[in-house]
Amino acid sequence: MKHETRAARTLHRWCGLTVGMLLVMVALTGAGMVFRPQLDPLLQPALQHVPACSAPLSTSRLIEAAHAAYPDAGALSAIRMKAVQGDSVAPVRIRFGDWRWVYVDPCTARVLGIRDAYGEVFGTMAWLHTFSYLPGGGVVAGSVALAAIALVVAGFALWALTRSAAPAATKRAGKAAGLNPAARGLRRHRMVALWCAPVLLVLALSGVPQAFPIAAMAVPAPPPLPLSARTDIAAALDAAGSRLERDYAGWRQLQWRVGAAGTSLKLEIVEHGAPHEYATGIAYYDPASGALLQHTSYAQSQSARKAYLWGLALHYGAVGAPWQLAQFAAALAMPFLAWTGMGGWLRRHIAARSNGLQRLVVRDKHHVARDVYAFELVHPRGRRLPAWTAGAHIDVHTAPGLVRQYSLCGDPRDRSRYQIAVHRCTPSRGGSDAMHDAVHAGDRITIGMPRNRFALAPDSPHTVLLAGGIGLTPLLAMAETLSASGASFELHYCTRSPLHAAFSERLHERRFCGRVLFHFSNTVGRAAFDSLLAAPQRGAHLYICGAAGFTDAALAAAERQGWPAAHVHTERFSAPPGPQADSAQAAFDVVIASTGRVVPVAAGQSALAALHGAGVAIPTSCGQGLCGTCVTGVLEGEPDHRDHCLTDEARAVSFTPCCSRARGPQLVLDL
Questions:
Q1: Alpha-helical regions (H) of 71-223
Q2: Residues facing 393 on adjacent strands
Q3: Which residue has the higher pLDDT, 621 or 563?
């Protein structure tokens, strides 16, 4: 599921980023042409209807008049006609060797005007819409249509996968389907997309076969006649036209197409009873005599061709005004979707830079112990990474909305890479599962700047590092630093077995010889903390990192052996059990100092949750008082501190809303 979600998100994002502007241009020009059938008569009334007559002139006479008005047009190419409608008839349109149409009155042969197919307002929009200004414009238009299909399909897939991933996501996606004017950001983007994407998908699907003709959608033509049998094409048109009523019971509109040098004569005809104006039958006539050679009505057409013609009708809005309105709305939504989609992406990247976030490449991912993966992160352009010190950690955005802290475990002197190690937790809150299953070598990942709340004390005469399991990671960086400086230190690494010992090859290197001791509980039993920590050297510092039980046992032993509290340092992965972890305490109020707004915090509710519910945005990560991401200033009131990241000095002026509470009825926060 996670691989599919990641693939859908990548495809959706990159289709939007690469062809988004072209799609906007295609959508806007398409929106401008949706109501062309209704607007053309208003803009060019003289070219739409002329009085009908009982005996229209012959086709050859109309061709002669058109050619006289436009003598340099070249050879005849096409003729379009419509049936009489009441007291009026549409002018006959005649095209020669270029893209100009000559409008001729079928009753008088009077030339009413000459119009460029890509001229004026609607013609220019068609010219832009089909990329006719580019060599191979059809291929470009088809490629853009394919990208639009991929964009819509990936968007639907991403929505469906996200919706099924978790109950909360399902509720959010369900709400997105409703038209909610108050929606913002991604929810607004998703809401509009869910309503408009089906129409956009139909338009894109129907545009592809126009750009890339498919043989199955065409009617095969008879073989061309010998050159000697060809005569004047105008006479052949007269002969064929005189038999139209005999060959067909009735027709609504038709178009003659003349092959190069008069080699063929093709008729596209919409008969009475056709479902739409693109439901054409195809007939081929002898260009010498005008005799009917072959006829395939719309009803006789293959299913593939009928589907193609229905696609044309849908693409050009020839199925009624409601569909035209849907087309118009969906096309106008495309700029909005591009703005909210691309704008959101840009805002995230700009915010990432302003907030000190970095996008790094996962250069390597490999096992270093059972259920432990090491990740090597580098700059995409090979640049040096921000400096850090032993004991530092980084915030890793493991998935959208999911941030976890991982200690840097490489050598702080090596600024070409960051190295972290992740143990799969059971059960996982999502972070370790995402890192193990969804992050791979070559991926890009967002991280925060290195922060250090577990730093080495300067000028310590001796340092004892006590690591349990994955707690080795910050202590390994400390060992690297102490070894490089020649300082006195010892590292005790406690794991269940050698298979559970991360970076064992590295710890067996010569520089760590005699300084690293392994304690495997399945062979020699649990480490005897009282013995390890007995008789502390004056001025020595102790660093402990591991699971809660491991840390508590080590702290208890350090206290028994007389280690000064100021010289004992810990970093926890989770909040320790006990009364302070009990959130079912008395309710209190939080006052926002900048506005005076009072936000009530219910019993059993965190201050952070109450503030977020009131629309007060505070960055957060671990939710357990371990990382310090959500720390805010406190101006009045007495906090009930339950965090594991603030120093005693910081607690005098700071508050951790994710876990801490108030000892009184109210806290005034510096927000």
A1: 120-129, 137-165, 167-176, 185-211
A2: 407, 451
A3: 563
Burial of residue 635, with CB atoms counted within 10 A of its CB: 0-12 exposed, 13-18 middle, 19 or more buried: middle
Could you give the CA distance from residue 75 to residue 67 in angstroms, rounded to a whole number? 9
Q: How many CA atoms lie within 13 A of 309 on its CB side?
A: 25
Most trustworthy range by pLDDT among 48-57, 232-241, 345-354, 481-490: 481-490
**Cα dihedral value 325, 331, 337, 339, nearest 10:** -120
Residue listed under structure tokens 């149409």: 101
- The CA angle 150-153-157, to the nearest 5 degrees, is 130
489 within 8 A of 482, measured Cβ to Cβ: yes
- Check if the beta carbon of residue 293 is closer than 8 Å to that of residue 284: yes
Output b/e per residue, 465-500; b: 16+ Cβ within 10 A.
bbbbbbbbbbbbbbbbbbbeeeeebbbbbbbeeeeb
- Residue 415's alpha-carbon distances to 182, 383, 386, 445, in angstroms, are 46, 9, 7, 17
Greatest pairwise CA separation for the chain in angstroms: 121
In 486-547, alpha helices (H): 504-507, 521-524, 529-532
Predicted pLDDT at 150: 93
In the predicted structure, residue 351 carries a pLDDT above the cut 70: no
Q: At what angle do helices 431-438 and 2-33 cross, to 10 degrees?
A: 80
**Residue corresponding to tokens 């119009």:** 115
Strand partners, 402: 399
Contact yes or no for 583/660 (Cβ under 8 A)? no
- State yes or no: pLDDT of 232 exceeds 60: yes
> How much is the pTM?
0.56
Size (the chain), residues: 671
Supply φ then ψ for residue 433, to 5 degrees. Answer: -60, -45
Question: How far is CA 550 from each of CA 496, 546, 570, rounded to the nearest angstrom?
Answer: 12, 6, 11
pLDDT tens by residue, 535-579: 999 999 999 999 888 999 999 999 999 999 999 999 876 555 544
The mean-pLDDT minimum among 157-166, 509-518, 582-591 falls in 157-166
Residue type, 263: T
Is there a contact between 100 and 76 (Cβ–Cβ < 8 Å)?
Answer: no
**Which residue's entry shows tokens 């990329």?**
131
Contact between 542 and 456 (Cβ < 8 Å): no
Asked whether 475 and 397 are in contact (CB, 8 A), the reply is no
Write the secondary structure of 131-161 as one string of H (helix), E (strand) and C (coil).
CCCCCCHHHHHHHHHHHHHHHHHHHHHHHHH
Question: What is d(CA 542, CA 563) in angstroms, rounded to the nearest whole number?
Answer: 8
Sequence-separated (6 or more) residues with CB below 8 Å from residue 567: 457, 536, 539, 540, 541, 542
- Alpha-carbon radius of gyration of the chain: 38
Look at residues 446, 445, 483, 433 and name the one whose alpha carbon lies nearest to residue 463: 483
Nearest to 74 by CA among 111, 113, 106, 100: 100
Tens digits of residue pLDDT in 429-485: 677 888 998 899 999 999 988 988 889 998 899 999 999 999 999 999 999 999 999
Which of 119-123, 149-153, 259-263, 653-657 reaches the highest mean pLDDT?
A: 149-153
**Overall average pLDDT of the 393-420 stretch:** 88
Q: Is the dihedral of CA 260, 262, 266, 269 positive or negative?
A: positive
Average of per-residue pLDDT values in the chain: 85
The beta strands (E) that lie in 370-505 are given as 372-378, 393-399, 402-407, 418-423, 444-447, 463-468, 489-495
